[in-house]
Amino acid sequence: MNDKNCADSEEKITAFYHLPGLFEFYEFYKVFLPLFKEHREYFYNWCDIGSIYGAPADCIWGRR
After folding, report:
1. Can you give the residue ranges of every domain in the chain?
2. Chain centroid to CA 2: how far?
3. What pLDDT band is residue 26 in, cutting at 50, 70 and 90?
4. Exposure of 9 by Cβ count < 10 A (0-12 exposed, 13-18 middle, 19+ buried)?
5. Is 9 helix (H, G, I), strand (E, B) or coil?
6. How do residues 47-58 score in pLDDT, each as one tens digit?
């Protein structure tokens, strides 16, 4: 198999990042997410956001 065939058979692998702190880092995400969406050229093409999660401090499942 030559190099051309190897390159054609490679799969695109994506790393999905799961970002915590939806409510704790709200101001950060308010700036970061539009930047991530509108300027993908600033970020590696093999990474993507899988989810953003969190719970408000006053909800019953957000207490520690």
Report:
1. 3-62
2. 35
3. very high
4. exposed
5. helix
6. 999 999 988 878
